[in-house]
Specification:
Blueprint lengths: L13 E6 L6 H11 L4 E4 L1 H6 L1 H9 L3 E4 L16 H19 L6 E2 L8 H7 L5 E2 L25 H11 L5 E6 L13 H10 L1
Helix pairs in contact: 4-5
């Protein structure tokens, strides 16, 4: 499991963008990254590829690193699923096929489970297929719903607060995940303030 980069190079961090099912914000993100001449890693699943083939092509042509987020978004640690090596291989292969059909290109041999829900069995099942599992060393919490209730309501932050939190938590080599797309669960989004996050990282 790769969950952070070098802790020696003081200002190096990685931005990772996760695309589940919504395309909103992708072009804006790509434009900002291009303006700053930054290369990032995007993780994409089969549901996104099938729903948004044109956006998938745009992403492929952007020159960024594209990894796999399996073929569908679900909790792979749920005990109702029989997670074994064959299941992992089929899910990764299916996503490879979807991406190749849309773009004519291969995915990078990088992946992470949907929502980062993972356990040792999943890691063990995937390690024999030349894929590197990419985790994270901080959670941006940009996925938390505004009206989630319960304990989650205490960790809902607006984008400006998320950026402040990232700046306090990051370390050299940190992998910083950003959720792409809009839904009804938030009223502002970290991905729409990527320029502010980059500026904060540049000056830290």
């Amino acid at each position: 499991v790769f969950d952070h980069g070098s802790r020696v190079r003081q200002r190096d961090v990685a931005l990772v963008f996760n695309l589940n099912d919504s395309v909103e914000g992708l072009s804006e993100i790509l434009n900002v990254l291009s303006d700053y001449q930054i290369k990032a890693t995007f993780f994409i699943n089969g549901e996104f590829i099938r729903r948004h083939p044109d956006a998938t092509k745009e992403l492929q042509m952007s020159g960024h690193e594209i990894g796999s987020m399996f073929y569908a978004a679900f909790d792979m640690t749920d005990t109702k699923y029989q997670i074994n090596e064959d299941f992992i291989l089929r899910g990764l292969s299916y996503n490879e096929d979807e991406y190749f059909s849309a773009t004519g290109k291969e995915l990078e041999p990088l992946w992470h489970a949907p929502y980062y829900f993972v356990n040792s069995d999943i890691i063990e099942a995937s390690k024999n297929h030349n894929y590197t599992y990419i985790s994270r060393d901080l959670d941006s919490l940009d996925w938390v719903a505004k009206d989630s209730g319960g304990t989650l309501s205490s960790i809902y932050f607006r984008s400006s607060e998320i950026i402040e939190r990232i700046m306090k938590m990051k370390q050299p080599g940190s992998i910083i995940p950003v959720t792409v797309g809009k839904n009804a669960t938030r009223d502002d989004y970290l991905f729409s303030k990527i320029d502010l996050l980059i500026e904060a990282l540049k000056t830290s």
